[in-house]
Amino acid sequence: MKNQEIEWLLREKYHGEKSGAFFADCARLEASEPLAYLIGSIPFLDCQISLDSHPLIPRPETEYWVEQAITAIKTESSRRDLVLRGLASNASNLESQGRTPKILDLCAGSGAIGVAVAKAIPEVRVTFAEIDSTHLPTIKNNIAQNLSINRKVLGDQYEIVQSDLFTDITGTFDFILTNPPYIDKAAGTVDASVVAHEPALALFGGAAGMDIIARIVAEARSHLNDGGQLWIEHEPFQCDAIAALAAEHHFAFTHHHDQYDTYRYSIMKPLVAE
Known about the structure:
Elements: H1 2-12, H2 20-30, H3 35-39, E1 41-44, E2 47-50, H4 60-84, H5 93-96, E3 102-106, H6 112-120, E4 125-130, H7 136-147, E5 158-162, E6 173-178, H8 192-197, H9 200-203, H10 211-220, E7 224-233, H11 239-248, E8 251-257, E9 263-270
Parallel strand pairs: 3-4, 3-6, 4-5, 6-7
Antiparallel strand pairs: 1-2, 7-9, 8-9
Helix pairs in contact: 1-2, 4-6, 6-7
């Protein structure tokens, strides 16, 4: 694996030139520093995500479910367009109001999720919420570089907010997409290199990894529009706990597999009182 990573580093960062800086990076790689940090970016769907502030490195599992979320958002947008053209009579609240879909990338880190959605669906409005202020410039850079927008003038289509989950978030959203800290540090299941180099704030979710997830589910309902959805990444063993949270806070839910046939994310929709 290290040989493959060295070849990738040589090709992607140094364009085949074995310079002194290349050999210095090889030494860092041998010391288990993540390849993505050494290169400085990582592909994520149709985007190239900068990691210059060393946020959580986006994983293929996240990429998989975000692609599913993009399909779901497009479906809602298509239904809305049908309504606006008078071709459908059975419309959701989102469609009947003719609104641009509003997305919240919660625990945004690098902003990979929100940026990928915005690139795939240019008309969406995206709010990026991240607690760690060091990552806010990275999010701004990723918006500018991937969406061809002036970094100094993001406009009102994209908003970046430093926020502890929903604390400083205003308004409501049609989709809340989140890859929160959900690892149980006490379980000791994380590679030492990940613990040493990636941000603990983005990895560890307290007891059984559920502290942050519990807060999100408890608070999300008041930030969702009618017919809105919460998509949340988690560990496979957390499905039962998430089901209990969904019942407690009056959500319908479904658990979903990733590309490795492992339960990796859940979709929640507020139950409508009869």
